[in-house]
Design a protein that fits this description.
The chain is mostly beta strands. It has one domain: TonB-dependent receptor, beta-barrel domain (Maltoporin, Chain A). The chain is 4% helix and 51% strand. The strands form six sheets. It has a 25-stranded antiparallel β-sheet that branches. A five-stranded mixed β-sheet has the order 1-6-7-4-5.
Length: 690
């Protein structure tokens, strides 16, 4: 266990990573190799403005530009992520949505990590980031998605992959970010407004972004989980169908400040949403809500002295799980107690995460960059409230059960220490390696040693080969460890971390700076997968899963006035639940995913674009007798107008033109008709830059 004074000893100073000079746009191959060595300090330092170096990185990486996504009518971060090869989406009864990378454990949240300007924002309660998936695309300059474990080497484990969102706080000389305002209106009475603003002096740069958005979304759902006995056989007759309240209201204020070698990164996100399909699987009221606020502040210091580079960070993050909802319908019968007006509940768990990291890079050895350092983390619950309708009398008035019947362990805490050592080695101008090891110790179950080896071979400037082996883990979320007195989920402090060994091969053919073909093969050995179910609500390490497949990605042009992007991924494998036979399929996983977009510029002002997606059918979990979840295909189209003289643009988008039924899989014995998503809808966007 870590020393309790670790954080008090940490210096609260901060850093921004070194930005690559853009003066080498016309560089020859020797200059490109030099720039690659600088880029490999961290994958999000890729100089995507030049389109030169992203494919040389020792990861399976896809990069999407915000401006291009805007032209496509992509509305938010979630819609952007859905374009990435091998990524599907899943949700749950609270509409906590999460990307699924390469079919890896669709029932777990924290298998992937989300970073905003390199700050980890996964919440502590669920280890999810659903509250950030609605981030408007106009706030995002670039999205870098790394598929595969071991994608981070600075003390953060990304089990199945990572997503790094770069805002317009990133500002290159000659490619400065513009100030701007944006307004949007769309289906479900969606309204959004926001702005971007940068202030500069010789030594100081301050960037601020803000957005507010809300809608009144409701989608058909049911019969709800009561029909399957989710709240006991006596209540099956109380099951109902209707509209699931999926409305949204949130606002976010982000601040990035850089002063010489010091920086500050901060964000406030107030997120509120409808209770969706009910915390206890009973269809809730329209006014029932879930709040998932997120606040962070990170300070740092970044300095290079001779052959040494210091990167010191310290931060604090607060996030809450705050639910107020009607948990069961009128006349609910719980253990013989009748609730004539239903049962209500208010559940709040407030978490705090403190962290400090120090990393040192040494450049003094020829052809090597040595990195070593540590990251220490303290996670803890700082407040917990548990209120329910009177369980003794059935009276609807809330009674405080915080001490007598808590829904969560109010004393939950966890300390984590991560040590890292890595060498980046250039054998010659064509062949480079990264190899290293992480060690993690926690207050509970240790992950131990985790190695990573990556090789990049450049046959020439156009042909690149990669081979990667990595091991990573996912610590159990706090919901999985500390939940109490809940009919749908029961925590387990004895859970082992989920672990994966990954083997990846890739080939990239570059045709030009912005045209390429990328293919990769992957084989994933997953151990200690964590599951629970409606019939066994206790979280357990019950499954091992072997996953393998390939991904294909192409980006290029059909003419000088268009852009074409296509990808296809195939995934298959087998799963083994303890005390059961091996299952030769992957439950809730699409074996085939195909996606693409096309932009055609009619002239310098007008553009037409379309986005197409195909998701194949999904097998059910063992024991689930329902038919397979149907495949679906969607097509979106957008018409854009850009006035370059006055720097404003107008975009009209129609999504899911053919009104296809899109549904995310529900677990067995819950909502038997799954979770239906949006049908055909529209969006209008007006943006002005200054």
């Amino acid at each position: 266990m870590l020393c309790k004074n670790c954080f008090s000893k940490a210096k609260l100073i901060s850093s921004l990573f070194l930005l690559m000079s853009l003066s080498n746009l016309d560089a020859k191959m020797d200059d490109i190799i030099t720039s690659i060595s600088n880029d490999m300090e961290h994958f999000n330092e890729v100089a995507t403005v030049t389109k030169e170096n992203e494919k040389y990185q020792p990861y399976i990486i896809s990069v999407f530009q915000g401006k291009e996504l805007e032209k496509l009518g992509v509305s938010n971060l979630k819609e952007a992520i859905e374009l990435v090869p091998g990524i599907d989406m899943a949700t749950d009864n609270s509409n906590i949505q999460t990307p699924i990378f390469r079919g890896s454990n669709s029932l777990a949240y924290g298998q992937t990590k989300l970073f905003i300007d390199d700050v980890l924002v996964n919440n502590l309660f669920l280890d999810a980031y659903s509250e950030y998936l609605g981030m408007p695309i106009e706030m995002i300059k670039r999205i870098e998605v790394v598929r595969g474990p071991g994608s981070k080497t600075n003390g953060v484990n990304a089990y199945a992959g990572s997503i790094n969102v770069i805002t317009y706080a990133e500002d290159f000389k000659g490619f400065e970010s513009k100030d701007g305002i944006v307004f949007k209106y769309g289906s479900y009475d969606y309204k959004m407004g926001g702005f971007l603003k940068t202030l500069k002096t010789d030594d100081l740069k301050l960037f601020v972004d803000f957005y507010y958005q809300k809608d009144d979304k409701k989608l058909p759902a049911g019969p709800d989980g009561l029909s399957q006995g989710a709240l006991g056989l006596a209540n099956i007759g109380l099951s109902k169908s209707g509209d699931a309240p999926l409305w949204l209201e949130d606002y976010s204020l982000g601040v990035n400040m850089k002063y010489k070698d010091f920086s500050v990164k901060a964000r406030i996100l107030e997120h509120k949403q409808g209770s969706a399909y009910g915390i206890n699987l009973a269809l809730p009221q329209k006014s029932d809500r879930l709040k998932l606020p997120s606040y962070y502040l990170e300070l740092g210091y970044d300095k290079k002295i001779n052959d040494y580079k210091f990167d010191i960070k310290a931060g604090v993050k607060y996030d809450n799980f705050d639910s107020y909802s009607k948990l069961g319908p009128d006349d609910l019968n719980l253990s013989g107690i009748i609730f004539p007006n239903g049962i209500y509940g208010e559940h709040i768990a407030k978490q705090r995460t403190l962290y400090q990291s120090t990393y040192l890079k040494y450049y003094g050895l020829d052809d090597h960059i040595i990195t070593t350092g540590y990251r220490i983390i303290r996670e803890e619950t700082v407040d917990m409230i548990s209120k329910l309708s009177n369980r003794s009398t059935g009276d609807v008035a809330l009674v405080d059960y915080t001490d007598t019947l808590p829904f969560f362990d109010k004393d939950a805490k966890r300390d984590i220490l991560i040590l890292s050592l890595q060498d980046e080695f250039w054998f010659n101008d064509d062949l480079s390696f990264i190899y290293g090891i992480n060690y993690e110790q926690t207050s509970y179950k240790d992950a131990g040693l985790e190695p990573r080896v990556s090789m990049v071979y450049r046959l020439d400037q156009q042909n690149i080969f990669k081979a990667i082996y990595s091991r990573a883990h996912r610590n159990p979320s706090w919901q999985e460890m500390f939940t109490k007195n809940n009919l749908a989920r029961v925590g387990n402090k004895d859970l082992e971390p989920e672990k994966v060994d990954a083997f990846e091969l890739a080939y990239i053919k570059k045709f030009s700076n912005d045209s390429y073909l990328q293919t990769n093969l992957f084989y994933l050995l997953n151990k200690n997968q964590i599951y629970n179910s409606a019939t066994d609500p206790v979280y357990r390490n019950v499954g091992d899963t072997d996953i393998y497949g390939f991904e294909f990605e192409y980006k290029g042009h059909l003419s000088s006035v268009d852009k074409l992007y296509l990808n296809y991924s195939y995934v298959t494998g087998s799963s083994h639940i303890k005390d059961q036979a091996v299952n030769d399929s992957l439950p809730n996983v699409s074996h085939h995913l195909a996606k693409g977009y096309y932009i055609y510029n009619l002239n310098e002002n007008l553009s037409l674009s379309s986005v197409a997606k195909y998701v194949s059918e999904k097998d059910r979990a063992p024991g689930d007798t329902r038919d397979k979840l149907n495949a679906y295909a969607t097509l979106d189209a957008s018409l854009g107008y850009q006035n370059r003289k006055y720097d404003y643009s107008l975009l009209l988008s129609v999504k899911n033109i053919f009104d296809a039924r899109v549904a995310y899989a529900s677990p067995p014995h819950t909502y038997i008709e799954d979770y239906e998503q949006e049908r055909r809808n529209f969006l209008i966007t007006l943006k002005k830059e200054f």
